[in-house]
Design brief:
By secondary structure, the protein is of the alpha/beta class. It has 28 helices and 25 strands. α1 packs across α10 (213-242), α17 runs antiparallel to α18 and α23 (673-689) runs antiparallel to α24 (695-726). The chain starts with 10 loop residues before the first helix and ends with a strand.
Length: 897
C-alpha cells in the first residue's frame, strides 16, 4: 500500500464485528470488592431503562439482606428461581430456560462469576450469560476484580485469599460496555462498619483480613488498570474496523524490532525496561523477507533466543513477512496502535545513507507520529542492525565448470559465424551464454561467465584481434551490458531460489500440520492421541519425542516416538516443572537447560492437559521450533477433547446407572410390597379366623398365597438373571436340541396361569435341530408367555408356532392383547418397561411383572446368537407377535407319531 492509498478496514476486525450481529449487548459493572455498590447501580440503571419503556426483567439478584438494594427491586419484574436437588438439599438457581422463553430486551443477572449447582446446564453463570447473548438478549451483570482468571495469583499474593469462582479474561474483554463502580477504601470500610456489606460479626472478620486498607488500594488499582487495558483494546478494535491508521496516543504500546544479530537480546531487555518505565504493553517483532539469503545457524540461534527471552520477560512476539522492511513494520504499527518503536543504532553504509535505504531514515520519514528509540550496544562487536547476515554459500564447482563449457561453445559458434556476421551480432552469442549462466547457476557463476565472455570476445573477435586492447569506445558499453545482464539474472535467480526454499519449508510445515490434524482426528482416547502427537512431534523435530499425562496426581509417560525413551531424573524434573508452572523447561530455557530435552506444557482451551518433550541434541531451527509448537498446541486441544469425550461417556454411564437404580427402587417398592401385602393379609386371616372360614374361602386364600409366592419367586429370579446379564456372568452351555421340546416344557410351566385363556400349538412334523442352551431358551419363552398372559383379556387366544426358513428356526408367540403403539415398539425390550392400558386400574397388578421379562428374554436369546423382534398391532389394530430366530444346523429331528 502506498502512502496515498486510503487505509482499508482490517478483515479480521470486520469478521469479528459480523459475528456479533444478532447477539445481545453485555454490560459489566466492575468493582474492586464486595459492597462498592455494583448491584445497586445495576438495579438503578435497570429502573431508569424501565421508565424509558424498555422491557427489563431481573433474572437473578443477590441483595445479601441490604434493605436499600431490596427496595430497588420494587416495580421490577423478578423471575423465580429454578430448584435443583443436590445431596438431599434443594438449591435455588437462575432459571435459564425461563429467561430464554421470556426473552426480554434487558435482563439483569447478578454475580457473573457464580458457580452453578451440579445438574445445571452450564457449570458457570457466565456461560449462562453467553447463551442469553447468543439468543439476542441484552444482559447487565456484576463482577469483582478478584474473580478474573488471570489475576487469581496476584489477588492471592495481595490478600492471602485463593479465589475459586473465576471468569476467563476473554469473557470480560468481550463485554460491550464496562462501568467501574468505584469508592475509596476508607468509604468502603465505613460501609462495612455500618453493616451495609455484611452482618456485624462477619464485617469485623472481613475488616481485619480481606478489607484491609492496603488490600483494597491494590485491588482498586487492579480494577482501574484492567478497565483501562480493555478500553485500549476496544480502541484498537474500533480503529481496525474503520481502517484508521494509528497511532492514537490514548495508551502507550511499544514495538521492539530485532534481527538475528548479536544485539537482539540487548534490544529485548531495553524494550522491557522501557515498558516498565511507562507501564505499557510491549511486542517484539522480527521481519522475514522472502528475498533475503538463507541465514547462518548462529543468526537463527540468536534470533530464537531473543524471542524466547521476550516471552520469558512478559512480552508478546510476532514474526512479520514483507520485502519492504519499513513498510511491513509501519503497517503493523498502524494496525496495532503502536506509539513507541525501539530499534538498534547501526553503522549505516554510505551508499544506504545516500540513497535513503537506511531503516532509521525510512522510519523517521514515514513513522506517522510514533516515537522512535535508538538503542546503542556497549560492545563494539555487537553492532545493532535489523538486517540479517547472509550465510556464506559454499562454492559450487559444477556451475563454474558449466560456465567454462558455455564459454567454449560460444567461442566455437562465434568462430563458425565470424565470416558471415559482424562483431555486434557475435556479441549476442556471448550475451546469451551469460544469460544462461545466470539463470542456471546464480550470481557468481554469471559474473565469471561475463568476465570470460568479455575477455574471449575482445581477444578473438574485436579489432585489434588477439589483443586485450579495446579498439572502440562502443565496446566498453557492450562489456557493461554483459556485466549488468550477469548481475541482474544472477540476483533474480538467487532470489527465486530463496523464495522457492522458503515456500518449500512453509509447504512442508502446512503439510505436516495437515497430516497431524488428520492423524489426531482419528484418535478417540487420550492414549491414542498422545501416541499420535508423539509421532508427529518426533517427525517434525527429527528426534525423539515423549508425551506425559497426569494420572492419579502424578505425571506419567504414556507415549513416545520413534521408540519409548527412558527419561532421566533431570528430564522428569524438567517435565514436572513445565506441568506445575505452565512454562517450558529444559534445553534453551532458564530451567534445567542441561537435560537435553525441552518440555512444553500442552495447554488446551480449559487448561493444561499434559506435557510434551522433544529431544534437542543440537541447535533447533526457528521454523522447526514453530512447527513443533503448532503441533503441540493442536495436540493439546485434541487431548482435551478426548478427556471431555471420556468424561461424557462416564457421565452418561452414571446417568444410566442412576436411572436404572431409580427404576429398580421403584420396582422393588411396588412389586415386592404388593405380593407381600397379599401374603401377609391372607396368612393373618387364616391364623386369626381360620377355624371360622368356609373351606372354599380358605382354599382361595391358600391359592392367593401360593400365587403371590410364585410371583415373588419369579421376580427375584428375574433380578438375579438381569444381574448375571449386566455383570457379564451369564454362561451358556451349547447342545443340540429340538425347540418343540423346549416349547412344550415352557407351556407346561405357564398352563396353570392361563385361567380362561386358550393356548394353541402349531408345530411341524419335522424340524431342524438347533445348537442352544435349552434352559435359557425355556426361561426366555416362559417370560414371553407370561407377558402375553398378563396383557391378554380373558377368553382370548394365545398361539405358539414353530417353523423354519432357509437359515433359521423361528418361534412365533402371538396374543390378542391391546397391542403396542408404534412409538414404543423399539422400547419394549428395555429394563423395567411396562405398558399401561386403561383397564389396568380395574384389573390391578396381580398379573403384571416388574418389566424385566422381555429384557431378560432378549439377553438370553442374543447370548445364544439368536435374534428377537416384536410386531404390533396385528389384525383389527390389536395383538402382538414376538418372533425368535435361532440359527439352525444340518441335522434334522423327526417327530414320532
Amino acid at each position: 500500500m502506498t502512502p496515498d492509498e486510503p487505509s482499508r478496514p482490517d478483515p479480521d476486525a470486520l469478521l469479528a464485528q459480523a459475528k456479533k450481529q444478532g447477539r445481545g449487548r453485555l454490560k459489566v459493572y466492575l468493582g474492586m470488592a464486595p459492597g462498592v455498590g455494583k448491584t445497586y447501580e445495576m438495579l438503578t440503571v435497570g429502573k431508569r431503562r424501565l421508565e424509558e419503556g424498555v422491557d427489563v426483567v431481573v433474572g437473578v439478584v443477590e441483595t445479601h439482606g441490604r434493605k436499600d438494594t431490596e427496595a430497588l427491586t420494587q416495580g421490577l419484574r423478578v423471575m423465580g428461581r429454578h430448584p435443583i436437588d443436590y445431596r438431599g438439599r434443594q438449591l435455588m438457581e437462575f432459571d435459564l430456560d425461563a429467561a430464554l422463553a421470556l426473552k426480554p430486551k434487558l435482563l439483569l443477572v447478578d454475580e457473573y462469576a457464580h458457580t452453578n449447582a451440579p445438574g445445571s446446564r452450564h457449570p458457570k453463570r457466565w456461560q449462562d450469560v453467553e447463551e442469553l447473548l447468543g439468543a439476542g438478549i441484552d444482559v447487565h451483570t456484576t463482577l469483582n476484580i478478584q474473580h478474573l482468571e488471570s489475576l487469581v495469583d496476584v489477588v492471592w499474593k495481595i490478600t492471602g485469599v485463593r479465589v475459586r469462582e473465576t471468569v476467563p479474561d476473554s469473557a470480560l474483554s468481550a463485554a460491550d460496555e464496562i462501568e467501574v463502580v468505584d469508592v475509596t477504601p476508607d468509604e468502603l470500610r465505613e460501609r462495612l462498619s455500618a453493616g451495609k456489606v455484611y452482618v456485624p460479626e462477619t464485617a469485623r472478620q472481613a475488616a481485619a483480613n480481606f478489607f484491609k486498607p492496603e488490600n483494597l488500594t491494590a485491588l482498586r488499582e487492579l480494577a482501574l488498570r484492567r478497565v483501562a487495558q480493555t478500553v485500549d483494546d476496544q480502541l484498537v478494535g474500533a480503529m481496525r474496523q474503520k481502517g484508521i491508521e494509528g497511532p492514537w496516543a490514548a495508551g502507550e504500546r511499544i514495538l521492539v524490532l530485532i534481527g538475528g544479530d548479536a544485539a537482539a537480546s540487548s534490544l529485548v531487555r531495553a524494550g522491557r525496561r522501557l515498558a516498565d518505565l511507562i507501564d505499557a504493553p510491549w511486542i517484539v517483532a522480527h521481519v522475514e523477507r522472502p528475498n533475503q539469503p538463507v541465514r547462518a545457524a548462529a543468526s537463527v540461534r540468536r534470533l530464537t533466543d531473543a524471542l524466547k527471552l521476550a516471552e520469558q520477560l512478559g512480552g508478546s512476539t510476532v514474526v512479520l513477512t514483507g520485502d519492504d522492511l519499513p513498510e511491513a513494520v509501519l503497517a503493523y504499527a498502524g494496525r496495532n496502535n503502536i506509539t513507541q518503536i525501539v530499534i538498534g543504532k547501526s553503522k549505516e553504509k554510505f551508499w544506504r545513507l545516500m540513497t535513503g535505504r537506511s531503516l532509521a531514515q525510512a522510519l523517521l520519514k514515514r513513522s506517522g507520529g510514533a516515537a522512535l528509540h535508538f538503542v546503542s550496544a556497549g560492545a563494539p562487536d555487537a553492532e545493532l542492525k535489523v538486517e540479517t547476515e547472509p550465510v556464506k554459500r559454499p562454492l559450487r564447482w559444477a556451475g563454474y565448470v558449466g560456465v567454462v563449457v558455455l564459454a567454449v561453445a560460444a567461442n566455437g559458434l562465434a568462430y563458425l559465424l565470424d565470416r558471415y556476421s559482424t562483431g555486434a551480432d557475435l556479441a549476442m552469442i556471448f550475451l546469451a551464454s551469460v544469460l544462461v549462466s545466470g539463470l542456471a547457476w546464480g550470481l557468481r557463476p554469471a559474473l565469471v561467465a561475463a568476465a570470460v565472455s568479455i575477455l574471449t570476445y575482445n581477444f578473438f573477435f574485436l579489432e585489434p584481434r588477439f589483443s586485450f586492447v579495446i579498439g572502440h569506445a562502443g565496446d566498453v558499453f557492450t562489456f557493461i551490458i554483459f556485466i549488468a545482464v550477469a548481475a541482474v539474472t544472477g540476483w533474480l535467480t538467487g532470489r527465486v531460489r530463496d523464495q522457492a526454499q522458503l515456500s518449500s519449508r512453509r509447504a512442508a510445515a502446512v503439510t505436516a500440520l495437515l497430516a497431524a490434524s488428520r492423524r489426531l482426528s482419528t484418535a478417540t482416547t487420550d492414549q491414542e492421541t498422545a501416541q499420535a502427537l508423539a509421532e508427529q512431534a518426533s517427525a517434525a523435530a527429527n528426534g525423539r519425542a515423549v508425551v506425559l499425562l497426569p494420572k492419579d496426581g502424578e505425571l506419567v509417560q504414556v507415549a513416545g516416538a520413534p521408540t519409548t525413551a527412558l527419561l532421566t531424573a533431570g528430564a522428569m524434573a524438567a517435565a514436572r516443572w513445565a506441568w506445575e508452572k505452565g512454562e517450558p523447561a529444559g534445553t534453551g530455557t532458564g530451567t534445567l537447560p542441561q537435560v537435553g530435552w525441552i518440555f512444553r506444557p500442552l495447554v488446551g482451551l480449559r487448561g493444561r492437559a499434559g506435557v510434551a518433550g522433544v529431544e534437542t541434541p543440537g541447535d533447533v531451527d526457528a521454523d522447526e521450533e514453530r512447527l513443533v509448537a503448532a503441533l503441540l498446541d493442536q495436540g493439546a486441544v485434541v487431548l482435551e477433547r478426548a478427556e471431555l469425550a471420556a468424561a461424557t461417556v462416564e457421565n452418561e454411564t452414571l446417568r444410566r446407572s442412576d436411572k436404572l437404580r431409580a427404576a429398580l427402587l421403584n420396582s422393588i417398592s411396588h412389586d415386592l410390597r404388593t405380593p407381600l401385602a397379599t401374603v401377609m393379609g391372607s396368612t393373618t386371616t387364616l391364623i386369626d379366623y381360620g377355624k371360622t372360614l368356609k373351606p372354599e374361602v380358605r382354599a382361595d386364600l391358600l391359592i392367593s398365597i401360593r400365587e403371590e409366592a410364585e410371583r415373588l419367586n419369579r421376580y427375584v429370579g428375574d433380578l438375579l438373571d438381569m444381574t448375571r446379564l449386566e455383570g457379564g456372568a451369564l454362561k451358556t452351555k451349547s447342545e443340540w436340541a429340538d425347540v418343540r421340546d423346549v416349547l412344550g416344557a415352557a407351556i407346561g410351566r405357564v398352563e396353570r396361569r392361563l385361567e380362561t385363556r386358550k393356548l394353541t400349538r402349531d408345530f411341524p412334523a419335522e424340524l431342524t435341530l438347533v445348537q442352544i442352551d435349552p434352559g435359557l431358551l425355556e426361561q426366555a419363552i416362559v417370560n414371553i408367555l407370561e407377558n402375553a398372559i398378563a396383557y391378554s383379556p380373558d377368553g382370548s387366544l394365545i398361539e405358539v408356532a414353530a417353523y423354519e426358513d432357509r437359515g433359521n428356526v423361528v418361534i412365533s408367540i402371538e396374543d390378542e392383547g391391546p397391542g403396542i403403539p408404534q412409538a414404543d415398539i423399539e422400547r419394549i425390550f428395555e429394563k423395567f418397561r411396562r405398558l399401561e392400558e386403561p383397564s389396568d386400574r380395574n384389573r390391578g397388578d396381580r398379573h403384571k411383572g416388574a418389566g424385566l421379562g422381555l429384557s431378560i428374554a432378549k439377553g438370553f436369546i442374543e447370548a445364544m446368537n439368536g435374534r428377537i423382534a416384536a410386531a404390533s398391532p396385528l389384525a383389527n389394530g390389536r395383538g402382538t407377535r414376538i418372533l425368535i430366530s435361532l440359527p439352525k444346523s444340518t441335522k434334522t429331528h423327526h417327530l414320532l407319531l
